[in-house]
Fold each of these.
Amino acid sequence: MRANQFILVEPLLPNPQRQIEIAQISQLIHEHDLSREQRAVLHYRRGALYDALGLSTLARIDFNQVLEYRPGMADAYNYIGIHATQAGDFEMAFEAFDSVLELDGEHPYVLLNRGIAAYYAGQYELAQVDLADFHYQAQDDAYRVLWLFFADLQIDPERAYALLVERQEGLGDRWERNLVRLFTEEISPQQLMASTLEGVEDQLGLIERLAEAYFYLGKYQRMQGENDEAANYFKLALATNLYEFIEHRYAYLELDAIRYPG
């Protein structure tokens, strides 16, 4: 890997405020007589905090606890589905996301999450349907364009690239359009990395951009057959510690696909 192709930043440190809030919630749960609804809310909040800190096992325990107190909480099922996808348990993921849709057909991210689960499960036609519906809801969103492209690519590569060029016309001039321009060959990997520094306001903003750039560069390099280079980029995405970003969540699955092809 050439030095001008990547930028290194310090990993994001655990947020102390989130850790303090976890301690406060734990104290409330253990020391107070709470209603079932109150316990559901607190377990959900603590689960979300654990998730943001990368403590996925503790997060899953809390989200399952939520459903004991409030079986109809769609957001808890959504998190359970995401964690199941990350663990490669796609059957559980589909069950969880189907529950989300039954409980809240307008949930803002369930189509993305179920589409990604289908993509990594190798069910590309199902992924294409969900990701197309998700893209339709906000056609100026570069991330929606890219995930639909990844599903399209597994079904009809030539048409996938043609549609990518077409859909790019509906995007605004935000930085993330450069991610799409990488796959349309309008910019090089080096140019994408250089663009992460343009107009960035603080260190957190740079880390967030780099997490995304690293992940999609990894996808790009895999498509070029450069698996060693792709693996390096996925590892760099993981090194940002942005656990809530889908680019961090699914970098492990990409690495597994490289290590254990087929």
Note: The mean pLDDT is 95.
Amino acid sequence: MIIGVKDVITRASIGNVLCKRGLLLIILGMLASISFSSSAVTILTAQEQVNQQAQETKKENKILSSETQQAVAREIAQGVLNGGETFDPLSAISWLTRLSRQTSSLNYEISFVLNIPGKDAQPFLWRHAKVDESTQIEQLSLLNGPGFENIRVNGVVSVFQPGYPAYSMYGSAIDGPIPYALLHEPDKLLKSYQFLLVGRNRISGRSAQQIRITSTDKTRYGYNLWLDEATGMLLKLNMHGLDGKLLQQIQVTQLRIDDRVADAFSQLQQENLPRVINVVNPPQRKHKWKLAFLPVGMKAIKQDIHQLAITGQVAEYSLFSDGLVNVSVYIQAATGVFQNDVNLNNGANTVHSRTDGKVQVTVVGDIPLVTAQLMAKSIEVIN
């Protein structure tokens, strides 16, 4: 029987949320009229500020002009700097750095939906809380079907997945649909991607800043994300192909920030969580081949030997990453089964396999087909 988070946590009711950063939020409240439900963050402003907002509501759904955007940014910056933070509202990377800081420091409960065209929507519940000065707890649950639940206590992640024994492993964050680097290490993406602050818009009834992310060499998918002005948290994330077609969307439906989120973990008993498994990594092996073409910023982070589950064949394996996208490359002796190139797409995921009659090269990852083809064709033998 799988023991999930529901079995070890008694969920506490979470009331209306109090905002800690009053100065910043009052300034943001003057910038736009923001309507919240009882489950959303409550922003307290004076009545005269509410009256002033009414003059701006007609333009809330439009991205502000560059001149207005800069004026808004200056006001936000003044409020944040007065609060003792380092923040440049005209810098996209500064907004992402703020997201990283808030994601790891705030107590929050977020409901979001993962939408992939042609597939059923997947609703998730994401919680994070600093229980005390030395303990952070994070939870991610898939709410449809048998579901799965992951829970992290500091540097240990416990995984509860239907049909498999529960286990724990070491990790600094839960592996979910939101890319780790965007949430925790945006600065490491600067070599591979360009970040553009597009402007101000309205998402889920909240004022948000839109940021566009594109690869520096146009070899990877692009992203658009919207960050909540008041809290800095993620409200929406779109992944799109080189042709602009939507491949994947994450939409936040509820955002609650409150110290009392920690109460949801009050009954968690760490001794009831599964033990940490000992993962023995295979020894790194230098292959006698290399890729002459790699997207800018992408590098090999792992090399070893894999036995393919379907065929049982042994293949040389390399994992490449730019911090945001991982790409796997397999090289094995040609079997003669595939005489022509094989191209498969499943949403954002691409599989490309080709042979020269001697070896079979297979590239798998969330990259465009043209990029996978270029990588597979660039295999060179190292003398």
Note: The chain is about 15% helix and 35% strand.
Amino acid sequence: MLYWAHRPREASVHVLGIDIGGSGIKGAPVDVGSGELVGERFRIETPHPPTPDNVADVVAQLVRHFDWNGRVGVTFPGVVSHGVIGTAANLAPSFVGVDAHALFTKATGRPATVLNDADAAGVAEMRFGAGRGRPGTVLLLTFGTGIGSALFVDGLLVPNTEFGHLEIDGHDAEKHASAAARERADQSWSHWAHHHVRRYLTHVVALLSPELVIIGGGVSKKADKFLPELAEVPTELRPAELLNEAGIVGAAVDATTR
């Protein structure tokens, strides 16, 4: 899938965006012309076990909560290729190989599309947020349970990059540089950023030479606590602007392109 983030904005069309995470599944109706939520966000705990049928049931609950009759866009925390799940690190392994488009369309009775969660956040930031109007190579990184990534070249999304799994010192980078790793180790923001995030970003920038790196995920709300430690990273760094709404917005926008 190639997605052009800089294409002209849609007229006022509302789509239900749903963001599936390892701990919660949240959704809201989105005006895809403005990127604004047009209803209050609603969240349900991710079911356990997080099997395809159980997760689909929660997605259907969200559709019923909003009494939704139109299109539905869904994010998924793993590789998604033509609607088929390729990886599911934080959900049940039985998701791998599932046609998620078909699964969620059947569960909701509504036309549903699915894309990687970080890619969805990137679509939102490129359309409405920190990457709006930016040409060249732009990389969004979401720091949370792991590290998600979304790569854009002149507004075109290169899907499923999964740069959180780049190897540093024999381990996935997200083992030490994710937000969850900071919390597990009880590190200060400055220690985490200086010793782990700075090294990771320097490695990524050496590989990709992006003109802009957008720092997303929940940590974007605390950017003032750690961005000063990243001043030596040789490219422009900006915190994400859509915060926790980015996945919902990006999923909704993506649904209008299928």
Note: The longest strand covers residues 24-31.
Amino acid sequence: MNPYTSTVINEPGVMNYKDYKVEDFLLDEAFIAWAKKADGDAFWQAFFQEHPTQKAIATQAKNMVVLAQEQIDQQQKERLKSRILHDLEPEQSNQEEPRSLYRTMAYWPAAAVVLLLVVGLAWFFAVRPSKLFGPATHQVYQDLVKQAEVPLVEVYNAEEQPKLVVLSDQSSVLLQKGSRLSYPKSFDGLARRELYLSGEAFFEVAKNPEKPFFVYANELVTKVLGTSFTVKAYENDKKVVVMVKTGKVTVYANKETRIKTTATANRSTDGVVLTPNQQIYYNRSDAQLLKALIQKPALQDLGSAQFLSFEFDDAPLSKVLQLLEQAYGVDIVYDEELLASCKLTASLADEPLFEKIKLICLSIDAEYEIIDAQIVLSSKGCM
């Protein structure tokens, strides 16, 4: 069995180290604490025996921790500084001056490298990657999983093809390559259905009004009752994206790391509500939420939309726009009184939504823009 596609059980507070890289170990407090010890540890010995390929990676990370710990010692830094300054000082004797200069030039590069290593490692462990490279996404995922109140199943997809995960309530998750998902084996006895995502996945959620469904993905929380939607929350991306295909979801910033009380979990007044063909961007740099339409809005309620021809012959523009709103589930804002006399004769059957809007604008000399997931038309009216 491929260990990178296997399903494992994580007890609360225990991380899945088998996929760790050097930087992941350096961000793990439990690993750092172990690396600083002089003696061994039964857990790590057993882990290396089960995952021998990780031993070299962990050893490299451990050596960096030990080196940083040793070099950051204040007395050693002072001694190193004194030694460098001493080598740079000219000798008192004129006879020894050429030799002193030669010795200084010879030893200075090595001393400079050591000093830079000391300062660099100290700065790395003091500042941490969250300040160097932005939010430590993998660490956010780890922290969320650690706070889980029940044991979690974790699935990691290392394959090229999406991996289908079926939950105990028959909800399904299509997990993309390089993504991981943690969730309870069963939702029985739980007030909420809570999942934790790092990467990208498409969710189809079974309806259960008594047990809301939450997806924690980096700094965003998505709450649904029964719908289908996509979440993109890759480790190094600057944005987290939620896109709705069917139903309705509520998205809000995860300021408290995770929802702690049932009262908080059941509230629906906070956050931004998304409906089909809408998406939200969360800019991780400034913690801002931006609501928008997806790039290619799809027809909604195909049972009735398939009978729509989108063939118009001298049709009132207001009727055309109302039809588009119904077919795509979007809001189109315009001045009804100003456009009351506008008529449209056109064939829009094979055009995607935004092409339909462009053709309409050309016919009535109008312009459009997307504001807060709404299509806003601007026109001087029709003669």
Note: The longest helix spans residues 97-127.
